[in-house]
Amino acid sequence: MPNAQIPVLKKNRTKKRTSRKIAILLILLFIVLLAVLFFRSSLSKVSEIRFDGNVFSTREQLLNRSGLAVGDQYFGVSASDVSEKLREIQSIQQVTVDKQFPGIITIHIKEFATVAYELQSDGSLRAILANGTSVGVGSSGIAVEKPILTKWKSDDPYKAKLCDALSRIPGEWTADISEIIPAPIPSFPDRIKMYTRSQFEVITTVSLLNSKISYLNQVLETEDPGVITMLEADSYVPFKPDTSEESQEKDTTQ
């Protein structure tokens, strides 16, 4: 009797396995159908692209460089790829891509800080960023507390180093500097001259600027206008009064 029941058990197992396979196939077909319907619906598309923090790059420029467009597949957008493409723009320092389902992509732009301006041959000004990039000012306006770079060649290697040095100095310490020009000599190829709004002339080098800036501000706050030299040694010499004018005044009084 026990042997006669064995074929019946095998038939029951076969029916159960067949029913399970059919159920799995139906579930898979249902999932595929849902996926097809979803990817054809507007929920799977990019519905809005937002940018913030961009000053020197327009929305159109950012869209062209990133390759993004409304209607793209939302899940096909790679945040790392978009970030890498946008960082190729020289004015951009950092990019953060935030994807918000459904369909919203927000891109946060951090640009290099403006450290100076440069006067062009046509009289216009261009902003010089911390990495040495020159960009048009446009509607961003001009920060009057930033110095103007004049007589610098575009390929001067010390220009980018100067911009990096300025970016590391607090803005209030450079607010009085109105102009910076190159003044190289054989012993100091990165020598520069700076002129301040308080009528000082400053001689130093690009490589020494960061370490000497505290001395500069000390003199600016306590002394009358003069020449400040900040090289291997620091010195300050006040401007001499015009002796010719003094002598003329003495002659008239006599």
TrEMBL record:
Chief location category: membrane
Keyword set includes Transmembrane: yes
Keyword Transmembrane helix: yes
Pfam family for this entry, one: POTRA_1
Domain spans labelled POTRA: 44-112
Superkingdom in the source lineage: Bacteria
Topology in the lipid bilayer: Single-pass type II membrane protein
Keywords recorded for this protein, A-Z: Cell cycle, Cell division, Cell membrane, Membrane, Transmembrane, Transmembrane helix
Subcellular location: Cell membrane; Membrane
InterPro entries xrefs: DivIB, FtsQ_DivIB, POTRA, POTRA_FtsQ_type
Gene3D superfamilies: 3.40.50.10960, membrane protein fhac
Function: Cell division protein that may be involved in stabilizing or promoting the assembly of the division complex.
PANTHER family: CELL DIVISION PROTEIN DIVIB (PTHR37820), CELL DIVISION PROTEIN FTSQ (PTHR37820:SF1)
Family: Belongs to the FtsQ/DivIB family. DivIB subfamily.
Protein name: Cell division protein DivIB
Species of origin: Paenibacillus ottowii
